[in-house]
Amino acid sequence: MAFQPVKYYQTGTFTVGNRLLPPETRAVQANMRRTNSLNSGHRACQGCGEALGARYAIDAAMEATDRQLVAANATGCLEVFSTPYPETSWQIPWIHSLFGNTAAVATGIAAALRAKNRSDVRVIAQGGDGGTTDIGFGCLSGMFERNDDVLYICYDNEAYMNTGVQRSSATPAAARTATTTQGNAFHQGKNLPAIAMAHGIPYVATATIAHLRDLEAKVRRAMEFRGARYIHIFVSCPLGWGHAADQSVRMARLAKETGLFPVFEAEHGEVVSVAKIRKPLPVEEYLKPQRRFAHLFSPRINTDAVARIQEMADRNIRKYGLLDA
Ligand SMILES: Cc1ncc(C[n+]2csc(CCOP(=O)(O)OP(=O)(O)O)c2C)c(N)n1
Ligand code: SF4
To answer: Each residue of 77-98: pLDDT tens digit?
Structure first.
């Protein structure tokens, strides 16, 4: 069908369908020629945010690279549910690394491609928050520091989900896991996007599975750079967080709208854009639907802990300027 410009729709809102947008502004997923890089038939739980995030991110990367893409994948849910031997859901060249060395394996692939003068083929490394913020942290920091030509994507579901919901260094304060019965202690935590920025690498971004066009745009932007790039995607996990499977996207939206997960882009260590909060919400709205926070509300509300979580959200709002003046 020939493209016809839209006259009466507000394209900045959610009201317009993809078919009414100019082709260059349509979602990758709206393209019938999308690659379906992570194909159907995998074994993720119903409502898995990691599966959703990976599908959008890798399809966007495939489009941006004209399908010249190789991915290295850390051990974790994404690897396990997509590749039960001898099957695979991946429609791209894909290698399973060890749990902790994905960044190093991707660096090796990038070096091999350089030796072969194949600058057209691009490299992605991906893993969960455990593989990224804990066990793979040294390899990742090395990749950043050498400015290796790799895009690293962390799918942050805030715990080690694949082995039964153990705490990682990205688990938020007060969240109950299999290894933290009353929730984590309040602490400064390990903020990987900020740590990536501190390396001064060309591009760092955060995104969520509630804002998939934004995620696609950030993957596309990342592919415009050479050198080390990092995208941190907030992905809900119904099984580990204890919310209904159909609430995954809502949980991610609430994380952003409360200020608990700031969505921004940074280039060479400087924040260059932030996604403003449309309608600021109290953190209770995000916490209450999740069983991992149930101990904060029952048998009675822990006002101190909830206030401290609200403080964290308010601090993000101030630090990143998430509200319009
Ligand atoms: C060296 C090593 N230690 C432990 C494991 C067991 N293991 C496999 S997956 C996993 C958890 C992965 O958690 P994360 O990286 O957060 O990804 P998720 O499953 O949450 O997506 C662990 C501990 C392993 N495979 N290798
Ligand atoms: S445990 Fe969580 S991250 Fe793993 S497949 Fe299930 S929903 Fe996805």
So the answer is: 999 999 999 999 999 999 999 9
Ligand 2 pocket member 233 (CB < 6 A): no
Q: Looking at the CA of residue 45, tell me the nearest atom of ligand 2.
A: 6
Q: Whose CA is nearest to atom 3 of ligand 2?
A: 237
Are 71 and 95 within 8 A, CB to CB?
yes
- Pocket of ligand 2 contains residue 156 by CB under 6 Å: no
pLDDT band at 3 (very low <50, low <70, confident <90, very high): low
Q: Assess whether pLDDT exceeds 50 at residue 14.
A: no
Please tell me the pTM assigned to this model: 0.95
Q: Which residue(s) pair with 90 in the sheet? A: 38
Ligand 2 site, residue 20, Cβ cutoff 6 A: no
- The Cα 194–Cα 133 span in angstroms is 12
Show the 3-state SS of the chain.
CCCCCCCCCCCCCCCCCHHHCCHHHCCHHHCCCCCCCECCCCCCCCCCHHHHHHHHHHHHHHHHCCCCEEEEECCCHHHHHHCCCCCCCECCCEEECCCCCHHHHHHHHHHHHHHCCCCCCEEEEEEEHHHHHHHCHHHHHHHHHCCCCCEEEEEECCCECCCCCECCCCCCECCCECCECCCECCCCCCCHHHHHHHCCCCEEEEEECCCHHHHHHHHHHHCCCCCCEEEEEECCCHHHHCCCHHHHHHHHHHHHHHCCCCCEEEECCEEEEECCCCCCCCHHHHHCCCHHHHHHCCCCCCHHHHHHHHHHHHHHHHHHCCCCC
Please check the confidence at residue 271 and state whether its pLDDT lies above 50: yes
Using the predicted structure, report yes or no on whether residue 38 has a pLDDT greater than 60.
yes
Looking at residue 19, what is its pLDDT?
A: 65
CA of 221 to the centre of ligand 2 (A): 28
